[in-house]
Amino acid sequence: MDDRLKETLSAMMDDEADELSVRRLLSHARQDEVCSQWQRWQQVRDLMHQGNLADDRVDVSARVREALDGGSRKTDSPVAAQRGGRDRNWHWPAVAMVTLALVVGFGAGAGWESADSSPEVANAGIPAESSEGQDVSSSGEPVQEVALQGLDDEQWEQVSRYLLEHAQHNSVGAGRGSVGYARLVSASGPAY
Amino acid sequence: MVAHYGNPGTPSMTVETERHKEENNESQTDLQLVRKVRHGDRSAFDLLVVKYQSRVASIISRYVYDSQEVMDLTQETFVKAYRAIERFRGDSAFYTWLYRIAVNTAKNFLESRGRRPQGSADAVEAENFDDGSRLRDNASPEKLLQRDQLQEALRVAIANLPEELRSAFLLREYDGLSYDDIAGILECPIGTVRSRIFRARDAVDRHLGPLLNDSRTS
Q1: Which of A23, A191, B32, B69 is 20 to 30 A distant from A172 in Cα terms?
Q2: How far is CA B4 from CA B79, B105, B143, B155, B163, in A?
Q3: pTM over 0.90, yes/no
Q4: DSSP label at residue A150
């Protein structure tokens, strides 16, 4: 324990130590030295003020430490103990909320991605032109069905490239369905 | 400027009472330590235990006369204090709060043994509590001799201090002045006061060290 720390401890005896110094002192590796020095100075003070040492048999610090160590393996601080209880109370609601948020997020994302073709959302305010069972493009025109049989090499290459790009886009934009949706709306909205 | 004092080993009762009052009211260090304890710093609590264990034992010894029971209840008081420290709001001094826990612990103990608590203690009493009541069998001839030796050693240690260290140290210990006030009186920076008091304390500790260790092991 160097003199600077001892000086802080001395200032603590007199209620004159600042918060930062106290923190530094308490983080000193050899707390047994700190405690021992503190105890001796307290004894000197007792001797000065009462003409006697406090009863030297009264040293319960080790016993208190043991008792608390025994009881604190579960919780390190009294506040943590109370917080622990509160945290446990919040545990399941928090998990439920996160789960709900994920479900809503992914669900909405997926819904919005598929809602790209939903006239109620993509073209809010514009009457749907589609009927049941008929795919509709963002412009409202029916999508032409493409038969994958009988494609030539160039067409296969285009389809493959498209599928690859589509997969990459999905992997990069996973969970950000709403962004794609917003982009789609802004690009296809009636005001544009 | 030099302050002159009488025998440092025998301060007047007035000084002692003022010092006690000051200790109870000024609890900046206690509050700092309590804050640390609340954040899980056990070493901060160790310092509080070391600081107050004798006084707590002394309170309890007014209710319970068996020295082993006093030790057990002192320990229990601190364990209870640690576990309840979040409920300490700082409205009163930490020591006053601890005092109440000690008194209640002692009373509960007596009631659990079917004994009626004889003493009474309240917060006002806690503020002015004189630590004079020791465990009953403390004043053995050996202890009296040891006390005399310690007082003489303390007197010599203080007398041997350089003047500037002694002045700062005694102004702090016996007059209870703040570092700022001492700096004003001694016309030096506050950092110098802090350093002088530390060096004085260190010198006295080195002088008394062996005796203090002997008293702990005897």
Answers
A1: A191
A2: 44, 44, 30, 14, 10
A3: no
A4: T
